[in-house]
């Protein structure tokens, strides 16, 4: 059901990981839901008792006439409300989250029901506290009508606080389920945006206690027997309640904000470290913060696609050419550069194709090309073309090299040695040249490629043909050997001067000393 995409969590260690089994996640959610409801009601009960006994001591509820209410009706209702609330909430959760329990994809109806679960569970608490407010107000009012305002204020205030705390805790607990709904393509209804959560926190944590203080003062002034001490104690208790509930609700509300932000920050750290494969976030928030998570995932997807295209582009044209193209607007034409060219041509490719099936031929050629690519790139060269069973490599363009000729000559020797070991089925003629070429983009504006054009390309190709007489020894032009470093030049010995096919100028031919 859940995407097993790494060790991402839902913004809190309490909610576990996406890698957890469906059963463990279900047990965890049910446990946290029960604990959330118990904690919210316990806070409400403590608040009611504190306000009743200390905050608003007059008129007192602790009289002999009210013993049956205090010691029978209240405990019985609290116990029944606890049992009814847990059972009722469990029924709602099991009914509306059947798709998650059975580990199947949610339908649109499932999504709508799931999105209403926090509100339904919160409404259950609201109903139970509303019943308590009405029932206790009537019970106390029958004995002493002066207790009606006190019962309404105290129990009603406790109920509002419980409902607010319960909603924030329930919404927090159901993040894994919300994530599954969102990942299935159903965005949450934005009833509780960031602004709405902040307003609710202010309303419950500050506004209602302040209203309670105003009401307390008004009732105190209306009663002659109310002393300044009673008012001071009442205002102090309500102020402490406001401080506590305000802090608690602000903390719970901040959790819903900081969780998504922390996940985005963690994802950004992964992106900065180059770990794009594991940077996706679990989207579990239906507010603007969820849009932030979705936007981050979209950005990561774009970066991942860009890197894939960059890698694919680099594989086709060479990574250096790709980087140059991505860093500027490529255009047709070129510039004159001094480069070394290396040409490798397979011997007997026609016979190879006739004696083996196409699959075997491709496998052998891939091994052949792999040897060449490795040797060329190790010396910062560019494999420019795969021409059937031949390869053209360039040293000195598009990246300048201090010793382009030496790099090409060393690569030629390495290729000859590696081919004999790694691809014994093939042998190839290898030729190296050096000189001035035009390097740039050739073709049409709609479709072009980076290449080099000039006499060194033709000369290296002709030298590769000549090298087929003894494929174990690559051949190079005198220009290439003369341009190379002294250390590399000593590894080549002069063979002859000859007119290569298609060229009027004679070429001084050198052969590699492979024994050294």
Can you walk through the features of this model?
With 516 residues, the protein is of the alpha+beta class. Helices cover 63% and strands 13% of the residues. It is built from 16 helices and eight strands. Strands 1, 2, 3, 4, 5, 6, 7 and 8 form an eight-stranded mixed beta sheet that branches. Helix 5 runs antiparallel to helix 7.
Order of helices and strands: HHHHHHHHHHEHHEEHEEHEHHEE
- Helix run count: 16
Summarize the biggest pleated sheet: 8 strands, mixed
Q: What is the overall silhouette? A: rod-shaped
What structural class is derived from the secondary structure elements? Answer: alpha+beta
Poorly predicted sequence stretches spanning 5 or more consecutive residues = 1-7
Question: Topology of this protein?
Answer:
Elements: H1 22-55, H2 67-96, H3 98-101, H4 108-143, H5 147-173, H6 175-183, H7 194-222, H8 228-272, H9 288-317, H10 319-327, E1 333-346, H11 349-355, H12 358-378, E2 382-387, E3 390-395, H13 404-422, E4 428-444, E5 447-453, H14 455-467, E6 475-477, H15 478-483, H16 486-489, E7 492-498, E8 507-512
Parallel strand pairs: 4-6
Antiparallel strand pairs: 1-3, 1-4, 2-3, 4-5, 6-8, 7-8
């Amino acid at each position: 059901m859940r995407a097993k995409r790494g060790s991402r969590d839902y913004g809190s260690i309490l909610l576990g990981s996406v890698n957890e089994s469906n059963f463990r996640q279900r047990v965890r959610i049910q446990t946290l839901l029960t604990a959330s409801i118990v904690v919210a009601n316990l806070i409400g009960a403590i608040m009611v008792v504190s306000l009743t006994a200390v905050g608003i001591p007059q008129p007192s509820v602790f009289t002999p006439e009210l013993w049956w209410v205090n010691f029978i009706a209240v405990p019985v209702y609290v116990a029944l409300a606890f049992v009814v609330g847990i059972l009722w909430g469990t029924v709602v959760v099991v009914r509306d989250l059947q798709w998650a329990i059975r580990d199947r994809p949610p339908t649109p109806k499932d999504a709508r029901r799931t999105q209403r679960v926090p509100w339904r569970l919160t409404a259950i608490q609201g109903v139970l506290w509303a019943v308590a407010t009405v029932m206790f107000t009537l019970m106390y009012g029958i004995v002493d009508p002066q207790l009606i305002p006190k019962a309404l204020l105290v129990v009603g205030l406790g109920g509002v606080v419980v409902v607010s705390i319960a909603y924030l805790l329930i919404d927090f607990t159901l993040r894994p389920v919300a994530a599954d709904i969102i990942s299935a393509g159903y965005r949450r209804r934005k009833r509780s945006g960031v602004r709405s959560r902040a307003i609710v926190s202010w309303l419950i944590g500050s506004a209602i206690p302040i209203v309670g203080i105003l009401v307390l003062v008004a009732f105190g002034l209306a009663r002659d027997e109310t002393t300044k001490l009673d008012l001071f104690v009442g205002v102090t208790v309500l102020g402490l309640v406001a401080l506590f509930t305000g802090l608690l609700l602000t903390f719970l509300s901040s959790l819903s904000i900081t969780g998504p932000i922390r996940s985005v920050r963690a994802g950004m750290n992964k992106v900065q470290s180059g770990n794009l494969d594991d940077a996706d976030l679990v989207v579990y928030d239906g507010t603007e913060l969820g849009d932030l998570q979705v936007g981050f995932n979209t950005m990561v997807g774009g970066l991942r696609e860009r890197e894939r295209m960059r890698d694919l582009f680099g594989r086709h044209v060479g990574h250096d050419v790709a980087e140059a193209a991505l860093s500027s607007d490529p255009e047709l034409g070129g510039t004159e550069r001094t480069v070394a060219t290396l040409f490798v041509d397979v011997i007997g490719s026609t016979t190879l194709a006739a004696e083996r099936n196409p699959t075997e031929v491709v496998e052998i050629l891939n091994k052949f090309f792999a040897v060449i690519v490795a040797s060329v790139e190790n010396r910062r060269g560019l494999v420019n073309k795969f021409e059937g069973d031949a390869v053209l490599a360039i040293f000195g363009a598009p990246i300048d090299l201090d010793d382009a000729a030496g790099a090409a000559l060393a690569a030629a020797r390495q290729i000859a040695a590696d081919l004999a070991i790694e691809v014994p089925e093939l042998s190839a003629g290898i030729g190296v040249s050096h000189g001035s070429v035009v390097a740039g983009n050739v073709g049409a504006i709609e479709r072009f490629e980076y290449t080099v054009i000039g006499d060194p390309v033709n000369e290296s190709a002709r030298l590769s043909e000549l090298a087929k007489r003894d494929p174990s020894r690559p051949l190079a032009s005198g220009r290439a050997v003369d341009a190379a470093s002294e250390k590399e030049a000593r590894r080549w010995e002069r063979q002859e001067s000859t007119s290569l096919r298609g060229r009027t100028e004679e070429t001084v031919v050198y052969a590699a000393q492979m024994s050294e």
